[in-house]
């Protein structure tokens, strides 16, 4: 049987990985898929870079429509990235009746509902394993491996750049800005790292997992997103002293009041497996009512790890392209008519535990005032750490871990605390999750 | 559409879990599968136990053939266990044209090749996600998630009982026999724990993963199997001092000389994620050439975790029963005509690192003799720990970590060591894997 003919849009790092892996493992892949996979034509505006990557292994064109409208092409891989031209081209490929494989989390997170609707109309596959957690087959696990479960929550380290930065900040006691520069020098962070360090990339991925886990539409626009740019090394240190590690987590939970969907730095107990995921590695912890906790760990980015996911999707296309569309695994795991439009709760409505750091005057009665404010909001204290004032200073750090409470209660308590004359400056608040 | 009609053979703990989860999550499951799943008839010799578990939710019979030959039954779940009657019934179900879902690792490990051949003949699905690592969707990850990769090796904590025992031995410094009794009392070990503690259960699972990873037949009969019954608390302690943890691993590797397939206690560096998998939890680390390391963690046993895997297989049957057999994912991941009969190497041929513990006389020249023996076999030393002799004793423990060498060289070195008059008693040898 003739190899399946693939068109590639965007010949960058991941595209290079796809070529390399397909070439190196073509025999192994065909032993599994029962059919070869061949990239026949590649579109990229940068002909020189494309030529370097493609190395005469495929035809190179500048016009993406020459790929999309090529009658021999059965699948289009989109590796352009971003929401702009990528969206237009993916919709054009679908309209042309091509199956699509994409690694583009931004695209799926922002325009997924529209794209899947178009694909459903044309009966084509849109596969996106590479869009979440790179080489880890987490989309397959959620869509197919855990189908027996009512999934209760997901918490993931799904951005390698920020996990690398946080690991370095902890190991070396350095501040964010210093480590970011180092990460950029080493290639772990991009020249413009905004999407990573502000949590947007993680929110894209969390939004996709949320939809697949709960059978709701992709709702990136409703996600609460905080990055790590304001995180101080001292909070990482205090968290360690209290037995916690700080990670940037993408979290989505099902609650009786709606869905939580949020990305922010989070304290987690040190002895959780996910707390020990270091450097640029990714991990996703999933809690299902039948299976309990499962965790999936691996490289979340990089040329070949991402190519691993892209090619796994191509193998699935080989297998399932001849299957009637209504028998395939649904794009977002749930049958289209069974997707429920559950509301994503505003951040004020969510319930979690908190780490608070206050700079307080070293005077009697300070603690009494603060604990009274918490008690007034019905917030109970789980642990408290008061540092000794340094010699010659009459101020000190006070760290409080609370039990679970609603965010708006906590915000109200903080507002009251900052008004106390003995509380000097703002109150640092970091959310805490037990993940058990 | 009418729910798919399922027959169940064996109404025990897992069968109960399947009923409970199907009932509790029927809506969620149908939202995904697009069709309901209904257990219509259950066969069990113990009518009383069956009645308790089934609770009028299905017809109960004593004769398994009444399930197999029921024309309304489309899928048969086999939860009897063991190689005996389970094999006869699974083959009978296949012969009757039924799809089969089984949690029976012994059956697949020992008779898998025969069963898959029969199933291929009849064009039916035989699904066995629950046979390896319980609720963790590791079969799906290996068969479908990592299809781009040349898988190089797998190392798994795939027996919860022994991992629980090893965790307790380390935490409490207790010996094997003591902890085993405690584990039996708590229900973590069975009354007859032979299959678990002797490594046989882990070897069943490793044999299945080996076949799926490398595209070879299931070769349980060629696995090298050592359990944890001879493991001393002191070795766990010394390993910790050297920065290692001891786990019972199921290991399978691809080497230029053949396939390694072995189960034995193994030292692994403490900072590996898998070294931190505690209690009865399971984890499987997979190394693929494109994706690098991925790891899958969760509950490897228990009623609902196992049911989670069984029901995921049922959902797959709902989806793929109408797909032509040659388009489905092959039973053992590779197309039948592409399975290669690669030899499993005898244990003497494998290459790994070693932990050695010797009781030696506290005399000059002892170390020189021992290191010379290792040097003669071309074995280089990675670390050495000599304990101070206790007051009044003229013997001491010597611990050696070696670099990689072939097992037969190590055995030869040990034979020479035991002949030294300064080496008192036998030499304890535990294999060591870096897993990087």
TrEMBL record, chains A, B:
Its EC number is 1.1.1.3. NCBIfam families: PRK06349.1 (NF004976). The active site is at residue 205. This is Homoserine dehydrogenase. NADP(+) binds at residues 9-16. The lineage of its organism: Bacteria, Pseudomonadati, Pseudomonadota, Betaproteobacteria, Burkholderiales. It comes from the Bacteria. L-homoserine binds at residue 190. It comes from Polynucleobacter kasalickyi. GO terms for molecular function: homoserine dehydrogenase activity; NADP binding. Residues 355-435 form the ACT domain.
